[in-house]
Amino acid sequence: MKSSAGSPFEMGSEMSAAAPHVLLVEDEQKTRESVAEGLQLEDWGVATAVSGDEAVAALDRSTFDLLILDWMLPGRDGMAVLQHVRARGNHIPVLLLTARRSLDDRVAGLDGGADDYLPKPFAFAELLARSRALLRRPVLSSGPALACGDLQLDTRTRIAQRAGADITLTPREVDILEYLMRYQGQNVTREMLEREVWKQTRRFTSLDNVIDVQMMRLRRKIDSEGSAPLIHTVRGIGYRLGPGPA
């Protein structure tokens, strides 16, 4: 097992395709290392951050299945990180860790966008159980009818609409759009599209131009003249679907 004590964005270990990819944000070293080690023993992929700013940077550059977030952090606190995540339309499940125990604090955390709340100190077994429960919970974009603003996609009929008007898409464009909508608010890399949409298990840089052309064509159809842009290029990373700039 590899330690998580290095770079705050370092992956803990090479994981299988089905293993959850978790971002753990905790400034207390002993707690951070203990939780990261326990999750790695479950064969989960773990990246760590020690501050709110590092957490935001990690979330803006990578896609995660779960965010385990300490409330009290140096600089930008956990609630500010939550606000950033939800403002971008990111529906990632969030488990909030905090030493605050009052009912008002718990309500504030849940109202602020957390999906669950775990008071400190806690047993790792409970954190693991709550994390598994959150990963089993369907996210807003997990069903057959996907939506992002006035953009809709029915994955059963494979019909896309913007503001109620049908959009004619090729089968590949539908595949790309579905993937972006399921991960809306999160950055999607070319490598992710290559693996999950093109079903390539090895990296082929020659596909990058193909992906860029497909994305350009899809953007022209989705973000037609007069529509607020929804597909954004994230420089040096890939693409993001959601309102507002990348």
Question: How does this model look, in words?
Answer:
There is one protein chain. This protein has 246 residues and is α/β, with parallel strands linked by helices. The protein folds into two domains: 21-136, Response regulator (Rossmann fold), CATH 3.40.50; 145-241, Winged helix-like DNA-binding domain superfamily/Winged helix DNA-binding domain (Arc Repressor Mutant, subunit A), CATH 1.10.10.10. The protein is built from eight helices and twelve strands. Strands 2-1-3-4-5 form a five-stranded parallel beta sheet, sandwiched between helices. The chain has a four-stranded antiparallel beta sheet with strand order 6-7-8-9, covered by helices on one side. Helix 2 packs parallel to helix 3 and helix 6 (171-182) packs across helix 8. The two termini are 35 Å apart. Mean pLDDT is 83; it is low at 1-17.
**Strand share of the residues?**
15-25%
What is the CATH homology-level superfamily of the largest domain?
Response regulator
Q: Which structural category fits the helices and strands?
A: alpha/beta
Biggest sheet overview: 5 strands, parallel
Report helical residue fraction: 25-40%
**Mean pLDDT, nearest integer?**
83
By DSSP, the count of extended strands is 12
Query: Any guess at the CATH architecture of the largest domain?
Result: 3-Layer(aba) Sandwich
- CATH class descriptor name of the largest domain: Alpha Beta
Give the CA-based shape: globular
